[in-house]
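ok trying this again, last paste got cut off
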Amino acid sequence: MADHASPTTTTEDFLGRLTDAHCHASDAFEGADPGRAAGAIGGLATGKVCVMSSSLESQARTADLAGRRPAKVVPAFGLHPWFVGAVSLARAEPIDKRTHYRAVLCTKHAPLCSPPTPGDRREDEEALERWLDGHLPLLPTPIPLAGFLAELRVRLAQVPGSMWARSGWTRRARYKVAIAHQLAVVRAQIDLAVELGRPVSLHCVQASNEILGLVDALVARWGRRFTGLDPSPSTTSSPGRAGQLDPSTPRGINVCWHSPSLSVDVLRQIQRKLPQTAYFSFSSHLAVLHRPRALPGDAAHSPHETPALLDGQYSPRALRAIQATPIDRLLLETDHAADPSMIDEKMRTIFRVVQIARASAPSGLGLPSLDPADSNSLAAQIEANWNRFYKGA
């Protein structure tokens, strides 16, 4: 029987095989010291970091960081849902700033909330006007969607190894960007990603219905170019057309749900809709309910410690999602936006959470067996997953 390598001697080895699939190193130090951020990345044991753009301003910072550390940084360009409010769908220019934000901001997301009464609607509109009185000068000047997409196309073309970043939608914040606006911006960005054949990272908070609806709409629009799946005979327009697709047609783009706050049911629905292209990336931010008194180092772990480590420290929802994710579709991330020198420790944390969760899965889930002492086997699997996701192999 082959001996497993000692965890105490493989920590840096397994980190070197991993890619942080989602971090915000370009926002470290408030984006003001790219040289320091690049230096910290260069000193990481973690093999690579996928650096996500988020705001309009961070696109250039991400490109700069990738230029400083090309062997270490995978750049990703695109807008976080917090910032899509700065993009206008209006075709005419100039864009009136107040009119724009009055149209895209809301306090509630219809139709999932109860329809407001006329009095409630008037009260909300008045509150928004007061909020804009105090905050409008602080909001970014809106830019047309067409202009942003043109710049995004140029950045993706200039960096062939780049991917499309962190778009999606969220329901958080006092004044939210209307879901319809968020969806319009994310759809436009994904259309560009499909056209260019780039992998994408999706963000979704408290919007499971929207994410499933978006997937269905993209499948209907792009077919194999989005899903990687050939149409079944029942979906072809005439007999005999199945299997006669142009072999040069691209076969799907890979989609990673970053820090997915999804139920197991929704996660499995996504897997059924996108069996060849869906990936799920888990972070310690998502999984850790509170910082453990002392997260044991590799040498301290044994299979007998598993229940104590899981009990009360980690989100049951996140653990169930980790256990439900096919092992060949699982990625790791930090979602870290501060000093990049902290990325290694955060990667160790989520790696250990995944290792313990998979080893502790209830019987009947059909998961491959996993020795909690064997870091390298899991690291090798996650490394292969990243290469398949990123390179489309």
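PB: full thing came through this time. The first helix runs from residue 7 to 16.
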